[in-house]
Amino acid sequence: MTQRRLFGTNGVRGKVNTELTPEMIVKLGVAIGSFFGDNKKILVGYDARTSGPMFSRGITSGLIAAGNHVFLAGMAPTPALQYSIKTHEFDGGVIITASHNPPEYNGVKVIWRDGIEISHEQEKSIEKIFFEEKATLAEWDKIGTIQESVGIIENYVDAIKKQIDVSEIAKKRFHVVIDTANSVGCLAAPTLLRDLGCKVTSLNGNIDGTFPGRMPEPRPENLAELSLVVRSVGADLGVAFDGDADRSIFVDENGEVCWGDKTFGLIEKRFLIKNPNEKIVTPVSSSALVEDIADEFGGEIVWTRVGSVTVSQTMKEVKARLGGEENGGVFYGPHQSVRDGAMTTALILEIMTETNKKLSELIGELPKYFIEKGKAKCPPEKKEKLIEKLIEGVKESNTSTIDGVKIWFPDKSAILVRPSGTEPVCRLYAEAKDQKTASKLVSEYSEKLERLIETI
Ligand code: MG
Prior knowledge:
- This protein is of the alpha/beta class.
- The protein contains 15 helices and 21 strands.
- It folds into four domains: 12-150, Alpha-D-Glucose-1,6-Bisphosphate, Chain A, domain 3 (3-Layer(aba) Sandwich); 155-256, Alpha-D-Glucose-1,6-Bisphosphate, subunit A, domain 3 (Alpha-D-Glucose-1,6-Bisphosphate, Chain A, domain 3); 260-340 and 356-364, Alpha-D-Glucose-1,6-Bisphosphate, Chain A, domain 3, CATH 3.40.120; 370-454, 2-Layer Sandwich (TATA-Binding Protein), CATH 3.30.310.
- A hairpin with a 5-residue loop joins β11 and β12.
- α1 packs across α2 (52-65).
- The structure holds magnesium ion.
């Protein structure tokens, strides 16, 4: 029998008070507490969602009932909490966030003592405790304590500043427009930017858990206002965070939105120039651009399944110090091996400082690829079989089956077909040296998938 699941790609997620209820959150808190074992020190924090204070108290009740000591961080960016867990000898942490999801959602991420989200195997242990009622409640005199944890955001901003040349960046007096989506990004990044000598224009810079400014996913369609403001105030750079401020998408000085694997490519290039022969970890959904840069500057790409936990865990396994995703997640190991929007912003500013170039010029120097995305309807029960059939048909080609199927063609074009974890569709991502080829690949493979589904 397949085990019942609570955790998805990035922790437990659901709609507040329907899928995620206070009752189940307390029960989950007890299960997480039992997983860590009693008498452990656990940091608890949350993002700007309206349900954050409610769920953080629910999780806290569960954790102390299981005999753990809770340190309340309050509202903070996810990477600030992860950094604190890693550096302050906590035994683990729980972050209440639904990252980029709309405001009616929330979620729970469990963090290991190294600041990285627990592995999928560890998530299964928590689920087993939760569903099989194996949680252990402490005796009345062994119930844990609760105390405040202070200074987390200040320590986090200081730690980022130690990774970069603050005084050189400050000389440039950059003007940066930052859109923090009315969430926790506004608690750290504007301060960091001011410390880096930047003139800061804030958009959606007040905390409001209903996210009135824009949806927290930093997709181009949500960033029109940022582009407009960058152009109209003549800023050097625009940056938009997702809801918990671990991902950042940049806008160049012309207001053009740069997709995540391009800005990751810039960071990768600089990293390999300074540290040749290192491994770079990235999911199969990333552009071949990342591999071109590794080939040119002497790095080795380690491809993984899609998902930030997998990237962090793989970095740990292969001892890599840099990872990145096409959605704007950059894992800068010298700071911490997890996605970090403010750290990424500081690195981009440092690259602009060192090269004395505008973001559009830097992006213009990278190998060019054109992207096309699509989806094909596929009932969930047919997904596995469909991918198997597709693999059978492409045995001779240059393929990867790490996550779905990715096929690379001799002209450097590629297509990735992945079953969606949340919708009854398979997603298609194509890239090529010209837009026509990328579009053709998506339509060709959409048709191919439709034909294959009929045979299953
Ligand atoms: Mg996030």
